[in-house]
Amino acid sequence: CESVPWLEHRDRFPIEAEGWSCRFALWRPGLGSLRSKRRYMHNPDTFGFLQFAGADQEPVCGNIQWPARYVLAQIYQAEVAYVQDAGKYSADLKPLFVEKYCSVTNGCNATDLSAVLDMYKDKYNLVIKVDNEATHCVRYGTNSNYTGGPCFTASVNMDVSGVKVVGTISENRYLNVTSSQSHKVCLSLS
């Protein structure tokens, strides 16, 4: 890795350096501190999409699953902050809408979540199931044993532009979103 001169820049660091492999990550101060709890590259639910326009100036095509993915990722961030503080998950989203549990520092947007429950409640069918008595799920807030904690699963069922979108996320951050259309359907971004 040391023999690659352009990688010796101060904002790149090796994440794997073996005799046959050399992988580097690029870090910028605006993307989160390397020493912080919130590392940008380890938060794929905060990523966006990039679409290259064709020669014929094709229209922008938004990902039909994005609203469900976004909402579920917000719930995950708030629930994890809540369980680290309270020792249990919340089946109700309202207590999570405070800065202590949902803020830009943990990648959560309380305004957006509140809008999902209030202004857009007819679009999002949102359900949160918790099992705070469980002892087989991820246990957050420990430095030694990461298993043996309570469980939660958040699910959303939506109709987006005539397409049924169903998604779930659980405490282990497994996110699964499917849509009823097999052909490409674009989400209107206007």
Describe the protein.
- With 190 residues, the protein is of the alpha+beta class.
- It has helices at residues 66-86, 110-117, and strands at residues 12-17, 22-26, 62-63, 124-131, 137-138, 147-149, 151-160, 163-170, 175-179, 186-187.
- The strands form 4 sheets. It has a 4-stranded antiparallel β-sheet, covered by helices on one side. A two-stranded antiparallel sheet has the order 1-2. A two-stranded antiparallel sheet has the order 3-10.
- A hairpin with a 4-residue loop joins strand 8 (163-170) and strand 9.
- The radius of gyration is 20 Å and the shape is elongated.
- The model is unreliable at 4-25 and 27-38 (pLDDT under 50).
* Discrete helix count: 2
Computed CA radius of gyration, to the nearest angstrom: 20 Å
Low-confidence stretches: 4-25, 27-38
Nearest-integer average pLDDT: 77
Strand order of the largest sheet: 4-7-8-9
Helix/strand layout:
Layout: E1 12-17, E2 22-26, E3 62-63, H1 66-86, H2 110-117, E4 124-131, E5 137-138, E6 147-149, E7 151-160, E8 163-170, E9 175-179, E10 186-187
Antiparallel strand pairs: 1-2, 3-10, 4-7, 5-6, 7-8, 8-9
State the main characteristics.
alpha+beta, 4-stranded antiparallel beta sheet, elongated
Concise overview:
The chain has 2 helices and 10 strands; from the N terminus they run E-E-E-H-H-E-E-E-E-E-E-E. It has helices at about 65-85, 110-115; strands spanning about 10-15, 20-25, 60-65, 125-130, 135-140, 145-150, 150-160, 165-170, 175-180, 185. Strand 5 and strand 6 (about 145-150) form a beta hairpin.
